[in-house]
Write a structure and sequence with these properties.
Strand content: 15-25%
Bound molecules: 5-amino-5-deoxy-1-O-phosphono-D-mannitol
Helix content: 40-55%
Strand order of the largest sheet: 4-3-5-6-7
Order of helices and strands: HHEEHEHEHEHEHEHHHHEHEEHEHEH
Oligomer: single chain
Low-confidence stretches: none
Mean pLDDT: 96
Shape: globular
Number of helices: 15
């Protein structure tokens, strides 16, 4: 049931506020400023003993993990590696019983992720499945299972699962910090207070849909689009590029903004659009100088920044603004225009939005 939407994907983009609310629901104790670890699904793993984290995933789930890494390391000071499931078994395993290996998978059936998490378990790691589908194969093979409760995701392009996965991993980071006493309860309370704002701010951000539909006309004939960002926004850029490729078959690449001058800047000319993620965060100034470099070479700029940022607007050809908010909330909001942009470009191109060519919702072959 598409609930009145033209496509499942659009419906699922619009279900993000609900998806995040369901993920955080019952796991955050607002009164005590604590994470409810039992409700999170951890009962066999002892979080106090963890001194290293490995996140294993594919595609969008890999980007959710890569993005959340910044928060987990910040809260816990525990080193986090994020590994592509399909590659992780080709390296010598160095995990041990103090390593928490996390399989992040919407479907819980992705064969690469399943094999990789089994490999970590065999080598002695504590394994946790963060999945959307209850009773999945990946969950069966892990010590603990934590559901994201995003609700069924039908569109092949993952959207609401992404934001639910990011929120789940942030909660896990807070849970680890709480158990290992790495953050004060005041600090945890502060983070909880931010997280609970995400659903309503997502709701607000979704109102950008008709504006994005309008500007998508400018991009649907492009043969290639670059996406750049720094820090967490690097992985929002990666997610934006993946979605565009999947849905509209337009070549796209996501790049860390600082890497531009190490090669890809050679691509820039007056025909190339660059989607620049530059909201007001700790890396803002540096990203702005990258945008200026692109502009100086004639590249066309679609920036995604903070509402009312006239400086950024003045150096952009197109501008999409999200509300000013804290760094925990930002990546949730900037991901929305990524999903909507690829959706509307695909609609304009007339591709099969919910079932793009050559793709399957869960990839069960290696
Ligand atoms: O079910 P999973 O989260 O394990 O799936 C992983 C990827 O196959 C998936 O995210 C894929 O990249 C999506 N089609 C992206 O939109």
């Amino acid at each position: 049931d598409k609930n009145g939407y033209d496509h499942y994907m659009l419906k699922e983009i619009h279900e993000q506020p609900q998806a995040v609310a369901q993920t955080i629901n019952g796991r955050l104790d607002l009164e005590l400023g604590k994470i409810n670890i039992d409700n999170y699904g951890i009962s066999n793993i002892n979080l106090k003993e963890i001194d290293r984290i490995q996140i294993i995933a594919c595609g969008t789930s890999f980007y959710a993990g890569s993005l959340a890494r910044y928060f987990i390391e910040k809260f816990t000071k525990i080193p986090v590696e994020v590994e592509l499931a399909s590659e992780s078994r080709y390296r010598t395993s160095t995990v041990n019983s103090r390593t928490l290996s996390i399989a992040v998978s919407q479907s819980g059936e992705t064969i690469d992720t399943l094999q990789a998490i089994k490999f970590s378990k065999e080598n002695g790691a504590q394994t946790l499945a963060i999945v959307n589908v209850p009773g999945s194969t990946i969950a069966h093979n892990c010590h603990d299972e934590s559901l994201i409760y995003a609700g069924p995701e039908v569109g092949v392009a993952s959207t609401k699962a992404f934001s639910a996965q990011v929120s789940s991993l942030i909660i896990l980071g807070l849970a680890l910090a709480q158990e290992q006493k790495k953050l004060s309860s005041e600090k945890i309370t502060e983070c909880i207070d931010e997280l609970v704002k995400v659903p309503s701010l997502l709701e607000k951000t979704l109102t950008l849909s008709s504006y994005i539909e309008k500007i998508s006309k400018k991009f649907y004939k492009a043969s290639s689009i670059l996406f750049i960002g720094r820090g967490q926004q690097w992985f929002v850029a990666m997610e934006g590029a993946l979605k565009l490729k999947e849905l509209s078959y337009i070549h796209a690449e996501g790049y860390a903004a600082g890497e531009l001058k190490h090669g890809p800047i050679a691509l820039i000319d007056e025909n190339l659009w660059v989607v620049c993620l530059a909201p007001k965060d700790s890396y803002y100034e540096k990203t702005i100088s990258n945008i200026e470099e692109i502009r100086a070479r004639g590249g066309k700029i679609l920036s995604v920044g903070t509402e009312g940022d006239e400086d950024l607007k003045s150096i952009s050809d197109e501008f999409i603004g999200v509300v000013e908010c804290s760094e925990i909330i930002l990546p949730f909001l900037t991901a929305v225009p990524m999903h909507l942009l690829s959706y509307w470009i695909a609609v304009k191109k007339g591709t099969d939005v919910d079932q793009p060519r050559n793709l399957a919702k869960s990839v069960t072959v290696e």
